[in-house]
Amino acid sequence: MIDVKQPPYSAVGDGVTDDTQAIQNAINAAQAGEVIMLSSGKYLCGPLVGRSDRPLLLTGTVGAQIIAKPNTRTLLTIRCSASNVFQLEFIGAALTSVQPFLASSCIRVNDGLSGVVIEGCKVSQFSGAAIIANASMSLRVMNCDMSTGQLCVQAARARNIVLGGNTFHDLGQSGFALHGDGIIIRNNVCYRAGPVGGFGAVQAGSKNILITGNHSTDGGGGFELQNENALSATEPSGSSCVVAGNSFTRTFAAGIDLFRSGVVLTGNVFNDCNFAAGLPTAFTVQPGIVPDLAGPGSGYQAGDILTLGGGVFTRPARFVLNAPSPNGGLCDPARPATNGNTYVIDMGDYSVFPTNPANVTGGHGTGGKVIYTNANIKARGSGYKSGDVLRGSTGTSRFPVLVRVNIIDANGAVLEAEILFGGYYTGTLPTEMAFAAYDTVSSGSGFTLLPCFGNRYAMQYSKPSMASGGSILGIGNRNVIVSGNSIVNHSPSHDCGILFVNFLNAPVSRWAITGNVFGTFSKGAIKRYNFGTLSYDTAWGAGMVISGNVGYP
C-alpha cells in the first residue's frame, strides 16, 4: 500500500498546498494490485490521471478529501479497466473558480473500460456531471452521496450498469441519464432534484432494465423511461423493463413519464405526484437560482459567472452559466423543459432579498434576469428540539414549506434550520411565515422565516404531464402492465392517477391495469388527455384491460 503522505511522495493534505504532483507520482509508481491510500486530510489537486496499463486502486480513510483547484474541468480520469475508487470525498471548485468556469466533472471513466467500481464516495460542488462513463461495461456506482449542478451519473452505450444504495440530492438536473443494455437501479434515494429533470432518465434504445427499491421525493419528477422511438409500440429486440417497489413523493411532474412499451409497473407507491399540474403561477421558497423565461437576455457564454443585483447583503448570490441558448440567452424560452443550465456557486447572505425577477451582472451578455428563491430565519423562537420537522402555517398552499430544525441553543431557539421542501403557494404570499409541528411532537413556538418567493418551476410546464396531470404518464405505449400500485394524493385537486396522452395521434393500447389503489382525483383516476381538443376522455386504444382496482371506476 502506498500512503501518499509518506516519502517519496510527501503529500501535505492541508487544503492549501498543491498536492497534485505528489498524488500523481503515487499513481504513476503504483504496481499492479497496489492500493494508493489517502489518509485524513484535505488534498488540493488539479487533474489526476490513472495509468492505462494497470487498474487504479484509490482509497481514503475517514476524513480524506480531494479538493479541486480553481477551474479544474475533470478532477480524476480513469484509464484502465477494473479500477476501484473507494471512500473518498471529492469537492469541486465551484466556490474558488474564476470566469470562464466551464462545466466541471469529478470522475471520467474512459470509453470502453470494464469492471470499474466507485463506492462509498461523496461528491459535491461540481457544476457538471459527477461521473461520466460512456461505452463502459460492468460499471458499479455504489453507496455514494452526490450533489452536482447537472447529473450524478452519465453513461451512454454501456452494458451491465448498477447504481445501488446511492443518495442523489440538491441537483441542477437529475440523478442519472443512462443508455445501454442491462441497467439495474436499486435502493437509491433522490431528493431536491431539478427544477428541470428529476430522479433520472433511462434513455432511448436502452433494454433489459430493472428499477427497484428506490425513493424519490421533493424533486422535479421521478423516472423518465424513453423508447427507441417515443411514439412506437416496439422495443429493441430482447428488451424488458420492470419498475417494482419504488416510492415517489411530492414530485412536481409525474412520478413516471412512460414513453416506452413492454413495461411492468408493480408494487410502487405514488404519493402526491404531479401535484403542481394546473398551477403554473404558484410559488416556492425552495433555495435556488433559475433563469427567468421572460428575461433570458443575450450575448452570454458558457462559463460566465454572474452576480445577482438588488437586495441588501453582506455577500451577493452568484451562479455559473453552463450552457447558454443558441442566441446567448440564460435560457431558451422556446424549449423551457431543457433549461437545466445554471449552477449556484453561492446563495449569498441577505438581510433584504432581491426582488424577482432579479437582474444579473458580469459575464459577456446583457439583459438577463433570474428567479431567486430562499428563506432566512427571522424569529428563532424557543422550546424546539434538534430534528423537529415543522410545516408552514401561514398563507394559501397546495403544500406548505417543510423545515427541519438542525441546531438549537440551550433555550431551544433555532440556530440552524434546513428547508426540506419549499412548498407551493398561491394567492397573497405571506411576508413572514409561522410554523407548526408536522410529523413530530414539538413543544417549540415562535419560529418564523422571512421568505423570498418565486416561480422556480415554470420551466416544467411545457411537459405534457404538467399541462394535463397524471402520477403515471403514458405516451404512445403498448403492452404495459400496471398492477398492485398505490396511487394517492394529498387533495383531489390533482388531475389524474394514470393519464394517457394522445400526442401526435399515437394512441395507447394493450395495457393491463389491475389491482391498484387510487385516491380521489379531480379528472378521474384513469383518463386520456387529447392535446388536439384539450379535453379528458376514456377513448383509448384497443385491448385495454382495467379491472379489480380500488377507486376506479
CATH superfamily of the largest domain: Single-stranded right-handed beta-helix, Pectin lyase-like
Structurally, how many domains make up the residues? Answer: 3
Q: What's the CATH architecture of the largest domain?
A: 3 Solenoid
* SSE-based structural type: mainly beta
Integer average pLDDT: 89
Number of helices: 2
CATH C-level of the largest domain: Mainly Beta
What is the general shape?
Answer: globular
The radius of gyration is: 24 Å
Cα end-to-end separation: 65 Å
Taking pLDDT < 50 over at least 5 consecutive residues as the criterion, the unreliable ranges are none
- Main sheet summary: 25 strands, mixed
Helical residues, percent: under 10%
How would you describe this protein?
It is a single chain. This protein is mostly beta strands and 553 residues long. The chain has two helices and 53 strands. The mean pLDDT is 89. It folds into three domains: 1-155, Pectate Lyase C-like (3 Solenoid); 165-280 and 461-553, Pectate Lyase C-like, CATH 2.160.20; 293-454, no CATH class. It starts with a strand and ends in a 6-residue tail after the last strand.
Brief description of this entry?
The chain has 553 residues and is mainly beta.
